[in-house]
């Protein structure tokens, strides 16, 4: 993809984040967004730890990439990747994060004790049905939280599925997609590869914004690939609301069409990665 396309997709996601920006983390200690707030300020007003006492900090607890209940289900020869990149969010005194194989977890911030772990398998998951091999996922960068009155949910993705979970129990929200999951391969030509992304979901008002990633530059083995579109899903139902085409296709009139360099290759399935605000890379 060209640097103009990369810049366009980055600005698009960043502008969405600012549109739905909420107040930054406050003095209660909550950190309800992946990057502090939807504007990716990454700022906290907490001042208990400062330049005078930071050198006295000691480790209070440690958590492995996987809770023991999940680790026990893995094959004996399974090796976890050392690319563990999940950043927790904290809502009402509970930490939420994805683990080393992409399953969401809730745990106590004071003790590190596990409260619940997302069950592997389910509709739309890799290797569906629920007999999916627990090892069929990889680490991603985090989860997203949404609430409206008493209605709340945790949004996470694994493989090519977007999940809505009950933050108190980790159980799927039945009314979201197909029994709590949306297949992100829907609408894609999977002959060009499966949907893939490692960033945390971005929630703007009542829309879950999902980008996508693909092999590019030196790691690409072919010219064709998934287009890297950005899609918005209804946070309550999982229904697709809209699609933003990062690389305009033939016959599609968009404001970015004139700026997308196709070099006479408009018939190709060109790729365009969509970095999320508050992240470095995909």
Q: Summed up, what is this model?
A:
With 282 residues, this protein is mainly β.
Topology, element by element:
Blueprint: H1 3-19, H2 68-71, E1 89-91, E2 94-98, E3 104-107, E4 114-117, E5 144-148, E6 151-158, E7 161-165, E8 181-183, E9 202-204, E10 207-210, E11 230-234, E12 240-244
Antiparallel strand pairs: 1-2, 2-3, 3-4, 5-6, 6-7, 7-8, 9-10, 10-11, 11-12
Strand count, sense and barrel status of the largest sheet are: 4 strands, antiparallel
User: What integer is the average pLDDT?
Assistant: 79
Q: How many DSSP E strands?
A: 12
- Global outline: globular
Structure description:
The chain has a 4-stranded antiparallel beta sheet with strand order 1-2-3-4, with no helix packed on it. The protein is built from 2 helices and 12 strands; from the N terminus they run H-H-E-E-E-E-E-E-E-E-E-E-E-E. The chain is mostly beta strands. The two termini are 14 Å apart. It has helices at 3-19, 68-71; strands spanning 89-91, 94-98, 104-107, 114-117, 144-148, 151-158, 161-165, 181-183, 202-204, 207-210, 230-234, 240-244.
